[in-house]
Amino acid sequence: MREIRFGIDIDGTVTCPTSLLPFINDRFGCNLCLDDIKEYDLTKAFDVDSEAFYDWYRQTEATIYAESPAQENVKQILTEWQKHYELFFISARGANVLECTHEWFAQQNIPFDHIELIGSHYKIEAAKQFKVDAFFEDKHDNAVDIHEELTIPVILFDTPYNRKPIPEGVIRVHSWLEADHHIKKLFPTGQPVK
Fold first, then answer.
1. Is this structure's pTM higher than 0.90?
2. With 60 as the cut, is the pLDDT of residue 190 above it?
3. SS3 sequence of the chain
């Protein structure tokens, strides 16, 4: 029986953090790259009316999610992890994209035990509800808040938009291979280190 449960964000964590950029560049005539994104709020990176941007995003999100590439090595690592850990994906996506989210996981052949789309970036309550033992995130304030509230390790996937200081217990990584290395130290046999 797998006793350890992971809470895992999807966008920018399982998917590449650059997933949105080709769509934004095409729609808004930009030439943005990931290094241009210094804040989680994408509208700060280029001159755009935020209301127009979010209207476009709501209309396009299912297409974006369906076409998002997976991060390098994520499939192999999560496939191995599922033998030892429960994989609960907790995302700010809304319930309106649950079907396309399930389809993406199936197409990518990425395993999961549960997918929870909460429609909000506030993930603490979902992490508590599902009693996760570690969390994986790309949004800086989420990583810090989840760690501080639940006192669990949080793996923060490094991007230009999340480089503020982090407390001990939030672990910055640059790849899923690096995340795997830390998880093997924290939960070597599917059990937490005492």
1. yes
2. no
3. CCCEEEEECCCCCCECCCCCHHHHHHHHCCCCCHHHCCCCCHHHCCCCCHHHHHHHHHHHHHHHHHHCCECCCHHHHHHHHCCCEEEEEEECCCHHHHHHHHHHHHHHCCCCCEEEECCCCCCHHHHHHCCCCEEEECCHHHHHHHHHHHCCCEEEECCHHHCCCCCCCEEEECCHHHHHHHHHHHCCCCCCCC
